[in-house]
Specification:
It is found in: Membrane. Keywords: Cytochrome c-type biogenesis, Membrane, Transmembrane, Transmembrane helix. Belongs to the DsbD family. By secondary structure, the chain is mostly helical. It has one domain. It contains 11 helices and no strands. The longest helix has 36 residues.
Length: 250
C-alpha cells in the first residue's frame, strides 16, 4: 500500500523541482523539435494525417501513452538504483551533496550560456529499429529515448537522481523519478491529444528555445547552489513553514 509518510519533509519541494525539470527536459532543444514527427512515426501515420484525422490522433495518443510508460520504466528503475546507492553514501553525505551541487551548477552555467560543454550539445540517440505503428514499438522507443537522450536531458535527470540518492529512501526515490517522468511525459500526451490546437504553442516554444535554456540553466544553478551549501532541506522546511498550504501535498 501507498505510505503517505514518503511525502513528508523536503519531498514536496523536491517533487516540484522534479516536475519542473521534467517539463524543461521536454522543451529542450533536442526533444521539442522532434516531438510531432516522433509521435507520427510511433503511431504509424503521416504528419498531415495527425494534424487532421481523429483516428490518426487517437493512434498517436495511444502510442504516446506506451512511449511514456517506456520512459517511466527506466526512470523508476534509475530512482530505485539511486536511492539504494544513497544508502552507501550516507557516511559521506556532506561531501557528496557539495560535490553534486557543484557539478549541477556547472551544468546550469552551460545552459545559461556562460560557456558551452560540447557533449551536452549532442544527441545520443539509440536506434530501436523499425518500431513504428504499434503499442509495443512505442514502449520500446520510450525505453530507448530514456537511455539515449541523456546528453541533452542528463543535467536535469542527474539533478533529480542526486536528490533521490541524498534521500536514500527507495519509495521516495522512485516517487521522485515518477514525478520527473510525469513532467516529461504529460506534454507528450497533450501534444498527441491536441496536436492541431497546440501547433501554435509549440511554434512559440521553438522560437524561444534559447530563453528556455537560460531559465532551465538558472534553475539548475540555483538548485546546485542550495545542494552545495547544504541549504536545500532548510529551504524546503522554510517553504512549508511560510506556506502551510504546501503541507497538504505532503
Amino acid at each position: 500500500m501507498f505510505d503517505p509518510s514518503i511525502l513528508t519533509g523536503g519531498f514536496p519541494l523536491a517533487a516540484l523541482v522534479a516536475l519542473i525539470a521534467g517539463v524543461f527536459s521536454f522543451v529542450s532543444p533536442c526533444v521539442l523539435p522532434i516531438v510531432p514527427s516522433y509521435l507520427a512515426y510511433m503511431a504509424g501515420v503521416g504528419m498531415g494525417d495527425m494534424a487532421g484525422e481523429v483516428r490518426a490522433r487517437r493512434a498517436a495518443l495511444l502510442a504516446a501513452v506506451f512511449f511514456v510508460l517506456g520512459l517511466s520504466t527506466v526512470f523508476l528503475l534509475l530512482g530505485i538504483a539511486a536511492s539504494a546507492l544513497g544508502r552507501f553514501l550516507l557516511q559521506n553525505q556532506d561531501w557528496f551533496a557539495t560535490a553534486s551541487g557543484i557539478v549541477i551548477m556547472v551544468f546550469g552555467a552551460h545552459f545559461i550560456g556562460v560557456y558551452r560543454i560540447p557533449f551536452l550539445d549532442r544527441e545520443a540517440r539509440i536506434d530501436a529499429g523499425d518500431r513504428g505503428g504499434s503499442a509495443f514499438g512505442a514502449y520500446v522507443l520510450g525505453l530507448a529515448f530514456a537511455f539515449g537522450w541523456t546528453p541533452c536531458i542528463g543535467p536535469q535527470l542527474g539533478m533529480i537522481l542526486t536528490l533521490a540518492a541524498e534521500d536514500a529512501s527507495l519509495p521516495r526515490g522512485a516517487a521522485l523519478l515518477a514525478v520527473y517522468a510525469l513532467g516529461l511525459g504529460i506534454p507528450f500526451l497533450l501534444v498527441a491529444a491536441f496536436f492541431p490546437r497546440l501547433k501554435g504553442a509549440m511554434g512559440f516554444l521553438k522560437r524561444n528555445l534559447e530563453q528556455i535554456e537560460k531559465i532551465m540553466g538558472l534553475l539548475l544553478w540555483t538548485i546546485g547552489l542550495l545542494m552545495a551549501t547544504g541549504s536545500f532541506s532548510a529551504f524546503s522546511y522554510w517553504l512549508l513553514e511560510t506556506f502551510p498550504a504546501l503541507g497538504v501535498v505532503g
